[in-house]
Amino acid sequence: MAATASALLPDPGRAALPASPAAPAGDAAGKHQWAFGVDATKCIGCLRCVEACKAENEVALDAHHFRTWVERYVYVEGVDEPRIDSQSDPVNIAASGSEQHYRFANRYQEEKVEKAFFVPKLCNHCTHPACVQVCPTGATFKTADGVVLIDHTYCIGCQYCVQACPYGARFFDVENRVTEKCTWCYHRITRGLLPACVEVCPVGARVFGDRNDKQSPISRFLAENRVEVLKPETGNAPNVFYVGIDKDVR
Amino acid sequence: MHPDFTAAPYIGYVYPNETVFPWGVLIVVYPYLTGLVAGAFTVSSLYQVFGLERLRPVAHFALLTSLCCMIFVPTPLLLHLGHPERAFNAVFTPHWTSAMAMFGYFAGFYVLLLMVETWFVFRPHIVHEAQQRAGPLGWFYRLLSLGSYDLSAEALRIDAKWILTLAIIGIPAAHGLHGYVGFLFGSLKSREWWSSDLMPVIFLFSAIISGVSLLTVLYVLSCRLRRIPVDADCVKGLGYTVWGFLMFTLLLEGVEFGSLVYKGREGIDMILLFVRTRLIIPFFVLQIGVGAVTPILILSYLFWRGTAGRKLVAGVTLSALLILLNVIMMRFNVVIGGQEISKTGVGLLSYPWVFLGKEGVFAAASVLVAPMLLLLMMVRLFPPWHESEPPRAL
Predict the structure, then answer these.
(1) Range of the domain at A144
(2) What is the CATH number of the domain that holds A93?
(3) With an 8 Å Cβ cutoff, are B100 and A66 in contact?
(4) Does residue A108 form part of some domain?
């Protein structure tokens, strides 16, 4: 799927801009209001989403640059704090045998696990994004349909936005010397497609849609669940909504 | 792994993207340089505006020092940027909600002000050289005179008014520039280590002590090189200035740290672990112990005993050197330390030292040395020494 979409779209990793000549104009009038849901109770940690994202958006194939990632929380008997790791943990990279493919190592075989779950993470496309506030050139901006994007032709690569994001969602693209992050696959959603990570998720742990459409998957997700957001105290007002996470998820 | 980045080792859990530090030692050098600018300008203003006569021997030298440092302030930023060729995007089409977008305006205004004030201060020398010298240097001074050769008493009186006006405007400009740098860090709510309302004030005070200290060291060194006696009264004045501001700086840092610990917000356990382990040497030993408490004790002893002459000069110069260490360690502990504490609140990263490359230690050290080399050239073109001049009529 990802490869096919990539073949159809020019410069997939950079097609996030409405101004891009080959990309659709986006939603200047704000007809849509995109949002994302994560049901952590469904995630099985298969990491297909992470690999699909890397392929779709041409993210560097290493263990240090991710538009989306998955965290694993394991509560071992007798220990109060959870053990947390992600696919980029050295033990997990060793288990996969490569920084280009991801899997969670079965590292808790010998432990008595009381509780464990996975939490997919990505850019929260906040309503009040700190990254947009601090960008000195306005290269990072929020679209009318609620997506935070980066104009790579205008980004100076100062990485102030990387510092400002409380979620660690941004990174510096060393090849192109600009900041990168999840765009909810803007080049896909403006064509009526789902973000790559949502499309490949085999269990429906990732939900995406238009909040203005009351019948969309995300509207139903929000209506049917008690949801929470990450780090609400920052005032960023995230638009990625979680179900089934624990107090230790930050 | 890509050759252009070095991944940081860590303990606990950190977000995957955090393993590449966004800002390295170049961004340590940036606030250090702006601090030297503000501090050196403070000394110049203490004489020009507030009439502190004992600082007269270093007043014009302070102005040159401030200018030389200011010229290089954008260098670490330009070296750091992914696209330095787009740097002016932030000036021509600024994003007004960004503190960083203000840099071009603050820096541009201040460097212009410094250049104009320096021109007025050295105008008699420029005119003199323009009329005396031949060859390329003569051309240089004639060009610099801007055709203004009038050195009459009336013209010099007008010059003095301009100098006073510019020096007054320069005080908020210089300190605003550095306070703004503190705001860059303090306004970020993503990092508990930075997110403090006191940050701009602490940056400002530490800027003043670093600039005064640099000036002390350079002045004493210049006297040795010129084989002339050091003006102990001037050094004592510099010592008093740095002593007072240093105590305030230490107090503010203590209040900030105490407040952080007392509030004990989420992630404080990891911060305290960071403080108890990683910060022992760079913060407690080097920044606070060696760089702040020791010079306070030395200066207190010198002033309490009424020490004078060579011992006073040696003591104040040693203190100044230690304070320069204090401030660079403060910048390091803020910029690098802040990034070593993971945004997850449950992990600590270790800064991966890089020595070569455009963001390495050698590049950063070169950026620090460059203003000193420029200053060496500038004092030859515009001698700031006052030994043979009569005291200024205030």
Answers:
(1) 2-7+34-243
(2) 3.30.70.20
(3) no
(4) yes
Residue contact A134–B98, C-beta within 8 A: yes
Asked if residue A118 belongs to a domain, the reply is yes
Rg (chain B; Cα; Å): 22
**Residues, chain B:** 394
Co-location of B92 and B118 in the same domain: yes
Per-residue pLDDT of chain B (394 residues; tens, 9 = 90+): 456 788 999 999 999 999 999 999 999 999 999 999 999 999 999 998 998 889 999 999 999 999 999 999 999 999 999 999 999 999 999 999 998 998 889 889 999 999 999 999 999 999 999 999 999 999 999 999 999 999 999 999 999 999 999 999 999 988 888 888 899 999 999 998 998 888 999 999 999 999 999 999 999 999 999 999 999 999 999 999 999 999 999 999 999 999 999 988 888 888 999 999 999 999 999 999 999 999 999 999 999 999 989 999 999 999 999 999 999 999 999 999 999 999 999 999 999 999 998 889 999 999 999 999 999 999 999 999 876 454 444 3
Q: Is residue B15 part of a domain?
A: no
Query: Which A positions 39-98 lie with beta carbon below 8 A of chain B?
Result: 60, 62-66, 69, 71, 81, 84-88
* Chain B residues inside the 8 Å CB shell of A74: none
Q: Please list every residue in chain B whose beta carbon sits closer than 8 Å to the beta carbon of residue A86.
A: 13, 15-16
Q: Which 3-state string (H, E, C) describes B101-138?
A: HHHHHHHHHHHHHHHHHHHHHHHHHHHHHHHHCCHHHH
CB B191 within 8 A of CB B335: no
Exposure letters B289-318 (e unless 16+ CB within 10 A, then b): eebbebbbebbeebbeeebeeeebbbbbbb
Tell whether B310 and B253 lie within a shared domain. Answer: yes
Instruction: Tell whether B94 lies on the interface with A, counting CB pairs under 8 A.
Output: yes
Residue B276, amino acid: R
From B81, B191, B345, residue closest to A157, measured CB to CB: B81
ipTM of the complex: 0.91
3-class secondary-structure state, position A208: strand
Of A63, A71, A174, the CB nearest to B4: A174
Task: Please tell me whether residues B178 and B296 are part of one structural domain.
Answer: no
Q: Are residues B121 and B264 located together in one domain of the fold?
A: no
Q: How many alpha carbons lie under 13 Å from residue B149 in its C-beta half-sphere?
A: 9
Containing A49, the helix (H) or strand (E) segment is: helix A48-57
Point out the residue among A65, A164, A177 whose CB comes nearest to the CB of B83.
A177
Is B302 found in the same domain as B362? no
What is the count of structural domains for chain A?
1
Q: From the CB of residue B166, how many other CB atoms can be counted at a distance below 10 Å?
A: 22
